[in-house]
Amino acid sequence: MGKTLRRIRTHRKAKQTINSLYDNDSYCLIIHFSCENFYNTKDVKTPRVTSIAVRYLNSAQTKSFSIHKVAELNQIPIHEINQNYDQLEKEMLNEFYEFVEEHKHYKWIHWNMRNINYGFEALEQRAKIFGVKTFDIKVENKFDLARLLIDKYGENYSSHPRLNSIMQMNKISPKHWLNGDEEATAFENMEYVKLHQSTLAKVDVLENILN
Fold first, then answer.
1. pLDDT classification of 39: cutoffs 50, 70, 90
2. pLDDT given at position 42
3. Which of 35, 75, 151, 157 has the fewest CB atoms below 10 angstroms from its CB?
4. Whole-structure pTM over 0.90, yes or no?
5. How high is the pLDDT of residue 142?
6. Sequence-separated contacts (24+) of 147-155 with Cβ below 8 Å
């Protein structure tokens, strides 16, 4: 009985949390980012960030930050991005954290962005490496949709990898979507536009799932 009650309470709390996000959708953002494959890095450095997408929940307008956009503004051709990567990443992260400063009191909805490998901490670490000033997003303003769905529907609601499984169950077929292996290959091939398009596709998917 105790386990059943806990499950009911967990389900109810997750449902209330999701509803509260929509009740305050003017102050909610959905974030996703793409980066170098951390399993394939040749040293212990935090994976390089290639693109970040942030969507306003109430309007579906998306703000994006990407290596290739910064390169374009600096008139650096695609084939020269790799040799200028550090400076471009620094500018991209600086722009991102200026955005964070303006929205640090918003609710940030994400998918598994929980640690130094892939998460807010990873973005902060990369920014600090370049001396970029960061702005902290409070823990209570971060909402992991992956965990909320487990709390709402239970551990066995979908197979792994969960995001792909949910897409199949709901017949979601986003254009430009890349899975983890495809993103790793795109990074190795310096296909930064493709990575950026995939990041944009993923915030779109997260909003569809939240709905």
1. low
2. 61
3. 75
4. yes
5. 98
6. 148/14, 148/17, 148/18, 149/14, 149/209, 151/10, 151/11, 151/13, 151/14, 152/11, 152/14, 152/15, 152/18, 153/11, 154/7, 154/11
pLDDT of 7 reads 87
Residue with tokens 């990443």: 89
Q: Mean of the pLDDT values across residues 133-148?
A: 97
How high does pLDDT run on average in the chain? 93
- The residue extents of the domains of the chain are 2-210
Query: What's at 186, amino acid-wise?
Result: A
